[in-house]
Input
Amino acid sequence: VQLQESGPGLVKPSQTLSLTCTVSGGSITTNYYSWSWIRQPPGKGLERIGYITYSGSTYYSPSLNSRTSISTDTSKNQFTLQLSSVTPEDTAVYYCVGGLSFAYWGQGTQVTVSS
Output
């Protein structure tokens, strides 16, 4: 299974960050699989933003819950992240991760929040 992130590398403050993860070699509806977004700000550790399960249930980090939405497009075998009202503190490398126990990782995409 391969995952590939896509989306803008630069977002202005107060706007919405939107990223898409395209999954190939497997189905996002595979039983018991979950699909996560994880980020790593510069000089900091990994932070899980949230995830969506194979059945469509979602979980968001409490610190980001009010600004986060994760959804799937089963026809395209994709899942997406929307993070609203971004600030420079949302600057990070964003990873899409999926499968059982974080088995599959995308290569990561740099997103910078700046005017």
About this structure: The mean pLDDT is 96. The first strand starts at residue 2 and ends at 6.
